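Usage

Read records sequentially. Each one opens with the input sequence:
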Amino acid sequence: MSTPPTSARKLIHSILLSKGRMEALTDGIFAIAMTLLVLELRVPDLPKSVSTGELLQSIGHEAPAFFSFFVSFLYCGLLWLMHHLAMHFVRHLQIALVWLNLLFLMSISVMPFSCGLLGHFLRNRAAQEIYFGNMFVASALLALQWLVARKKKLLSEDEPRKAQLMGQQIFFFPAALGSAMLAVHFITPQAGFYAMAIVLVGLRLWQTMWHRRQAANPTNP
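and closes with the structure output:
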């Protein structure tokens, strides 16, 4: 009995692609999105003869926008770094990974809007839910890329312990941002950033202790 021929779709989806073009596109999108974040910082619309006190007071009114810019730029930088580290372990790409990365970049492209919304309505529950939701989707899509690459055996096996630690850290962000969304929704809008920070620190401490135990007992799974 002859084996049925592989479909054209499966053949195309099994093609192994190089990482270069996807990494170049990712770097470009991140560079543009992170640059656009600064556009939410406005120069005060005051006459040139304004006093120092009035100028500083006007700048102080923009503190939420500065805070939103700082957090968003830092978060985008962390996501870019996580993507860069993750791609170190990915040997080749397949179309499924490319599409997931495009969706990931779409969520990054929305960050200037979410950042501006948070800067204007820092204490508003809906603004914070949208902001943390945007961040959660981006981190979840990055984690999904890792899962798909592992399932399709596209990850390098040269550094298994490093890859294991990398996989753990990728999933720290969705967990932390999910807790932030729950805190904003069920507690207060101000609780979101605290919840995110607490979960990230807690998971990082757990990973440190886990790694020490593994290093002390390398035969343990």
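Summary fields computed downstream for this record:
- The mean pLDDT is 87.
- The radius of gyration is 21 Å.
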